[in-house]
Input
Amino acid sequence: MRRIAILIATTGGPVLVDRITPEPAPQSMVCLRRQSDVLPISADYDDFVRPGSGVIMREFGPYEEGAFRLDVSDVIGTGLSWQLGVFAAHAIFESDEHVLSDLETADQIIWLTGTVDYDLNVGDVDHMAEKVESSALMLSEYITKGTPIIFAAGQENAKFLEDHQPPQGITVVSLENTNDLLKVLGLVKEVPAQAPSRNTSFWPMAVLALLAVGAVFAYSQQETVSEKTEEVALEIDVTSDRGENPIFFYGDYLNLWVEVTQEAWVSCFYKQVDGTIFQLYPNDKVVEVQSFSPKHKHVLSGGNNATFAIQFGPPAGKEEVRCYASPNQIDIDPENPPHDVAVDVLRFDLKP
Amino acid sequence: MNKYVIDLALKEVAQAHFVDQDNARSLMNSHAEGSLAASRIYRYVMGGQDDTVAKAVRENLSVRRIYRELLAKTSAFYIPEALAASTEEYPERHGEGCLVRLQDSRAQADQVYLIIEVKDQRRDLPKSLTLFGVEDKMVSLDLPAGRNGVVQTIIDRSSLAAVLLADPKTEIFLR
Amino acid sequence: MDNTESLLLRAGGKDQLLADFCALKEALTLEGLPKYAERPVLENLAKFLTAQSGGPHKDIALYELAHLVYGVADHLGKDRVTDFFLSPDKASPNRYQSLFADSCDEQGLKLIYDDGVFVIRYGRMGFLCALYEFLCSMDGFSHFADITATFEKLTNGPLTGSSLRTCANTLGSILRKYRMAYLTSAAGDGKFTQVYKFLHENSHDGQIILKDDSVLDFWCLHNKGKEYKGYRTVFDLFSDFAHAFEESQRGQNAHRAAPLGLDHEAGEIDLAHDDVETAMLEEWSSPFDIFDEDDFSDIRFFKKKSERGPIENLMAYGPDALRLPVAFVRYEVFGQVQSGITNDLQVGRGKASVEQRMSCDAAVSYEDRVKECIAIRSHIKALQASSLHVLAQDQDEKVVSFTQKAFSKMTRKGFDDQALGKSDVFAKAADALVVMERQLDRYIENLEAQNLKTLFDQDRATFQNEFSQLYKEAVT
Output
């Protein structure tokens, strides 16, 4: 029997489908950690299971019992993005060759998010970035261990994942319908399509999350460019791992990158929506303040080697980080900065 | 300056009036604790959150009795104690228009399904269940939203609710 | 979370009555607002509960309550009685009017029986609800079963004067025992004797005379003790004293006061129908109570700080303020200064602030106080004209033209085209405004008869001196 761990991706972290039990009760329910705590999604789960309104009994039934009890490892909030994971869990429950597994002893981990409609089409869902980030810590352990992991989602969601280049050990699978899912699970004969080739853009988001928590993937934003000897004007470029005009949410980390064209001393200031300004860099966590070397992406915060991290909190609104570069080590007054320094601003939206 | 002449003949009656006024003023100015107003319990019966009343209902017999009285007046369904004892571990309890039963869970032997079925599906389904057993034992449960005439949840077999529902003498209030 | 439940079994003696009453003060609506207005509802309840004297039938409210319970059962259904009285909804006339909208008129609930009509006004129902709830709740709910059974018996039978009286008598009997157990007179007797003795010692020719200065003199004499530290407390004491004699005078020719009930040996008497009308005498209530009713929320008659605040006490005290107007202006002006000092000390605002108040430099002079009252009286007159404009739409053109001017000048919320559709609200306001004007007239007239400048200077010196004695420890 092949042991498969089904993880339902949520913004609060991945939730393991622990057990499915047919029950002689009128309604199907989702329970937390085998206790008598019934999750509020139970009504939607009952609809999803029930013949007529749902697909589970129709696709995998009939069952003598009128309902199922689904035990999960953690709370699943509102929404319907659990449907794909639950469908996969029921498919495995019904299979003679596969069995639902815990993470420790799993031969395969499948991380899923998406909806399943009455015609068995898989639908895309929101909050992909948060779901990936909140899964990073848990999954890093199993990537290291070598447990194969599949990320399965609707087509747009899968493209999003692909575009951001998952680390080695994770395969992204795009699903048009549940038949594609059954192929991935090995419950139909066709071999699942291999993940498309990766391009090099955004996956560092998840990887950064891993780094931020001391996980396994080595990651560096350092991109050494060919050295040039010619004199260039002092300029500074401030950006983040989410690009030039990112959106952040409370609890997110700001991974701040700075690049200068000449050797320079850098000072950065954070301006809140309410006008409050405070110095971001240097700060008391930086033991030895040094000048920044040119043509080199310096990770100020959030990276593996960074000495401090910045986590967002209230107030929400349009905020900015303004960095100054000077050939000399000088104190910058952010309210009245000198004219002969280079400056760049990273503006972003901070949302609750 | 104004003058007010006191009629000495009225002294005794006036003193009684004065005492009344003084007592009324004391009432208006006091901040004494120690009692609950019936409407506060009624508010709790109707589903309002009130930790003080919840604790008083659990711990104070007088409060529990008025809680029961108010519950009886506002419940959508009432199942009185059953006349005959049942041989089943959890007897089905039939009320006017509703049925309350417990069903073993296959998944967890230490848990049971609490199932409430309402015959007329046009009626509002109950949101809470309160049980009054012998010796003034009482427990109240908030119920999840029901559907298709059925309200269902899971309770521990060892819970007071399960113990009371095993006893046909337990009164059941659904509101 | 409070510790109410831990005290439920501890209350006893007079504390039980205080606790039971405070429980009603703390009763809330679902929105978390007080269910009962302090004035007039709770104030009337307090007066009713403590009424051992008075008359002719001090328990007449129980008779009214019996009517209301029957009316609710009859008009809304027996299963609605509990909800009507105990639901966590604001006990306001509007609520009751809307509940009876289908079966009653604007005046109130009418019950017809024995060839007579008994009317319970919507404005009275809040008090009767509070009374019902008090009876059910008192003494740790120990009478709840008896009381609900009494009402069930009433509503299960036909409506007759006899059944209503029986119900009221049963309630009266229960309440009599409660009062006997928890109402004490010791404190009140002591205070009465103290005031009486003080006045007696300061009067001559076998007459006892209460003057404005009696209040100030008593305060100066007793303010070092804990009980009479506040001038306002002493004013209330003398006000109650005078009021008690007036009540006695009024009741001199009336029936002997007695509680309702059936225990004749204990002094309870059966209720006779004829007593009802004479018993339902109106007591003074602040005209502002009218403006606090729900249907006034969209019409701004008074600005809280500048038009209502300065006369709030004058309207609340009514005739008690006019009996000793100089004593009352001291209450308003220097009582306010003393409240400020007490407040500063409570919140630890600091020596400088207390000293500033103790100097009485910021006290409003009596002349300015009169000017303030005159200005507000002008506003009240303008409000009267504006209200008349709304009410006189069908009147002749001359009247409309006069009031139109006043109305159009009233540039504030609610005084617009919509107002014409709210003539019932303006009618209520008009009545209250007349009462307010009369109260202000008399107060102003009384004060203007004094040499206010001299009086104020003297009083300021007196209060300065007393405050410096009273609070010297706080500023050293």
Q: What stands out?
A: The radius of gyration of chain C is 25 Å. The beta strands of chain C are 108-113, 116-121, 208-211. Chain C has 22 helices and three strands.
